């Protein structure tokens, strides 16, 4: 049967995972999410919510709503991966056609490599802080090379090597790493929380700050907060089949995600607020950046342990949320030449060429560009859900996904309803970046994108004959 597959659409990494190899339990899925939710960006997100006027308790409400929506979206988008054992880059061919699918795959891959680069550089700073604390000789290597001190280049090489080691033996080593890293990050986070409770003699001052928003102002800020929280994981909502294809049952994937995503986020957010409350009492201002907090405490042992924790947290989110999907996306582009090991190495190389040490000085440009690209993934999510549940009725001919000129080929490899839905959805969600009249759309861009992608795709796809595989 394999001989009938197109060489540019199939290799062993992209092939469906055999049922006997789908051995991830709910615990594996939960610990993977634990490792991803506990990251620096999520830690600092509470600061952004409080900065727009929400109280600490309202921050928790925003987190609850956002992660509940994410959980439902990922639960439904993960089902096809668990049922058929196929990754996102193969599943998306059903909606876009084998050639058209390259558009969302490239968009998702770009975001993954970029975020890998940025987050790995954050871990590089932590590694540099640890080694500078331990060695005066290391701290003295400050000669700049291509815009970065030589000690930072060495620290980056170490961090990149750690990523390479974890991803070198594929998804199963990543699973085993997350089984340890996810719970360990929680343990260290709990230690920081107990420290914050001790210093603050309770929840601390941030929990006593009242909300500054009421009426429509509160509703608007709440919507912005929910959309922002969802935006952190909107890319992963698209490629969740990359993980769920290894889970042994639908029950395991839904229980694992329920524990690892909304429940963990609801525990993690107050931990961040409590820890930061202690910094208000110690330093007279809230310090939300964990690295800045370590330096402010000026305790070598804490700097080393805390820095190691930040590196561990970065590794746990990077290997799953960025290296894994980017590797599959690259394999999909070059199936004749890449396997997972080679693709993950290529992700590391590409990450260096994104020169993250230069981007760090232009954070506004980073988020503006990623908001535009990420906004296009809202329509992709809507299209995927519409295709699988409404158009295909949860029935796919998996073999046809690996062939040209078969039932998913569309118009010479392009399924136009999906292409049109993506272009229209992306244009609307990105319009606010360029047209002031559409600026308000940005506050709910992901929701608008999902609804537009879903609605337009269903309307157009129903006018095109769709071969049925319901009898399979």
Can you walk me through this structure?
The structure is a single chain. This protein is 70% helix and 1% strand. It has one domain (2-371): Hydantoin permease (Orthogonal Bundle), CATH 1.10.4160.10. It contains 19 helices and two strands. It has helices at 26-37, 40-51, 56-84, 88-91, 93-96, 102-134, 136-139, 150-167, 170-200, 215-239, 241-244, 250-283, 290-297, 300-333, 340-353, 356-359, 363-391, 416-431, 445-461, and strands at residues 144-145, 148-149. It has 472 residues and is an all-alpha fold.
Summarize the structure.
With 472 residues, this protein is mostly helical. It contains 19 helices and two strands.
CATH superfamily (homologous) name: Hydantoin permease
Q: Tell me the structural class.
A: mainly alpha
**CA-based shape:** globular
The proportion of strand residues reads: under 5%
CATH fold name: Hydantoin permease
Mean pLDDT: 85
Through-space gap between termini: 17 Å
Largest sheet geometry: 2 strands, antiparallel
Helix content bin: over 70%
What's the total count of β strands?
2
Q: What Rg is obtained from the alpha carbons, in whole angstroms?
A: 22 Å
Please state the second-level CATH architecture: Orthogonal Bundle
Protein name: Putative allantoin permease
GO cellular component, one term: plasma membrane
Keywords: Membrane, Transmembrane, Transmembrane helix
Pfam families: Transp_cyt_pur (PF02133)
